[in-house]
Amino acid sequence: MLAIAAAVVFGLGFLLDLINTRLGPLTGTGFLLLGLLLLALHQAGIGSAGPRTTTGGGGWRRRR
User: Which residues cross the membrane (predicted)?
Assistant: First the structure.
């Protein structure tokens, strides 16, 4: 989820940089840094769904 948010932030930062616009104190570089922060949190495992539970080895086969 954080990776998707980072992609959106990177896109907004890119557009702001292309048209040389500021949104208050945030510039294209500010959005770039925010996107990098979100990617770092994603890589650290924060905001993920957690470990997936499995039924053990061969849990994908139907038991008889």
Answer: 25-42
* Alpha-carbon separation of residue 8 from 12, 28, 36, 62 (angstroms): 6, 13, 12, 42
Report yes or no on whether pTM surpasses 0.85: no
How many Cβ atoms are within 10 Å of 50's Cβ, its own excluded?
6
Six-digit token string for 36: 């990098």
Instruction: Read off the pLDDT of residues 34-51 as tens digits, 9 standing for 90 and up.
Output: 889 999 988 888 876 666
Residue found by looking up tokens 């907004």 in the block: 12
Show me where the domains of the chain are located.
2-44
Q: Cβ(47)–Cβ(2) under 8 Å?
A: yes
